[in-house]
Every structure is written in C-alpha cells, then in structure tokens.
Design goal:
The structure is a single chain. The chain is of the alpha/beta class. The chain has one domain: 3-Layer(aba) Sandwich (Rossmann fold). Strands 3-2-1-4-5-6-7 form a 7-stranded parallel β-sheet, sandwiched between helices.
Length: 256
C-alpha cells in the first residue's frame, strides 16, 4: 500500500505533458496515468515515447503518445488537438519539456539563442494558447510551468537556459492574471538538482555529490517522483485556490 496521496479529482481528467518520454517527464506521465488521468504526451524521442505509452496502456491505464518536436509550434498544437479529440479538452497542462545544454556565453549566436528559447520557453506559451480555450469553456483547469533553481543559485555554463527559466516565472504570473477570471490557475513547479538518467550520466560526479550534500538543507537526493508528486497536487482540485505561485522541490537549496 502506497504512503502517497491519491487524488479523486484527477480521475478521468485529460492531461497534456511535454517532454514525457524520459526523465521527469516520464515520471509525470506514469504518475498521472496511475491516478486515472487520460494522459496525452509528446516527445522528440519517438521510439521511447511509444514504448512508454504501450506499457501504460497494457497496465490498464490511459496514455496517448505523439512524436513531436515542440519547437515546431504548428505540429505541437496539432498534437494537442489530436489528444483533445480522443480524451476531451485538456484540463491539465504540464509544460515540462526543456534542455539544459551547456554553453559558453561568449560563443552564443543569435541562432543558438533563438533555438534555446524555443526549446525552453516558447513552446510553453503556445501550448497554453492551445489548451486555454477548452479550460475557459470548462471554467476550470491547471497549467504547470516547469522552472529551475539554476538561475536562483547562478549555475555556471547555462546562461541562456537560465534566462529562459527565469522568464518562465514571468509567464506564470502573466497568464495566471489572464486566465484566473475563468477559473484557470497557473503555477510554476521548480525542481532542484533531480537525479534523472541524463543528470546521472552527464553531470553528477563525486564533486557534484559533495556540492549537493553541502548546499541542500535536506539530506538525500531529489528524484523525479518528488517533482511529480508536487505536480499532482497542483493539478488536482486540492490546489483550487492556488495560482501565480512557484513551488520549489529542491531539498531546500534555493531561495525562491
């Protein structure tokens, strides 16, 4: 028997998740499906995404996958519309897709800047644009924008990523005001250093382990499941009067 919460208000609710084939996104897809939600998710990793959807459906849960590059706004909005045709208009949107590619600020070109903004910020706005009319019609909905503590703690070698993630908080506040009168809430979910496959493969070495131990208030490590549990709360009706806020899941590292 699990010690974690179940949310009756998520059962049967259409949910859209970007970047859902791996890492935090994969965990989000699994956790929302386990709550009985009707999950539609996109990712550029076609084979991995389809395998995940097949696995979830085989377990008797609902998941639809569309292979999609979220920087192609027309294709992404079309995928969201396809999910709506199958599951109903989304009442939860999790703007999860992002990529923290390392870079040196002196080498950033205008083309690289535009590409990183498309990967880390632009798609979130246009996904909101695609789902908001259905939420307005239903007079309820929850939009969750995934931020990052990187800009709060001034992480090196990712200045364009940090700029996009800082702007995510502005997007949350702005759209919370725009959509709030219609019963739609918008919040930021801000992970710390999460032990995903990518992070463990590329960045978490002995020095990183020492840094985490020295800077997190809590002992231990933050895992995708920790982030997903906050997303479930923000998506459920339990958070019905919470909007325009940011929620850090970082083990007590950053000051929001």
């Amino acid at each position: 028997m699990t010690q974690f919460a179940r949310y009756p208000s998520l059962h049967g609710v259409p949910v859209v998740i970007s970047g859902g084939a791996s890492g935090i996104g994969e965990c989000l897809v699994r956790e929302f499906a386990a709550q009985g939600a009707k999950v539609g998710f996109v990712d550029i990793q076609a084979e991995r995404g389809q395998q995940l959807a097949t696995e979830i459906v085989a377990a008797g849960q609902t998941a639809l996958f569309a292979a999609c590059d979220i920087t192609d706004v027309a294709a992404y909005q079309a995928a969201i519309n396809t999910f709506a045709e199958a599951n109903g208009d989304a009442l939860v949107l999790v703007n999860n897709a992002a990529h923290d590619q390392r870079h040196d600020w002196i080498e950033v070109t205008p083309a690289y800047w535009d590409d990183r903004m498309a990967v880390n910020l632009k798609h979130a706005f246009f996904a909101i644009q695609a789902v908001a009319p259905g939420m307005i019609k239903a007079k309820r909905g929850s939009i969750i924008n995934t931020g990052s503590i990187s800009w709060m703690i001034m992480s090196p070698k990712i200045p364009v990523y940090e700029t996009a993630k800082a702007a995510t908080h502005g997007l949350t506040r702005a759209m919370a005001r725009e959509l709030g009168p219609h019963g739609v809430r918008v919040n930021s979910l801000v992970p710390g250093w999460v032990m995903t496959e990518r992070q463990l493969t590329h960045w978490v070495d002995a020095e990183a382990e020492r840094q985490i131990d020295a800077t997190q208030a809590l002992a231990g490590r933050v895992y995708p499941e920790d982030v997903a549990r906050m997303a479930l709360f923000l998506a459920a009706e339990d958070s019905a009067m919470i909007s325009a806020q940011q929620f850090l899941v970082d083990g007590g590292w950053a000051h929001g």
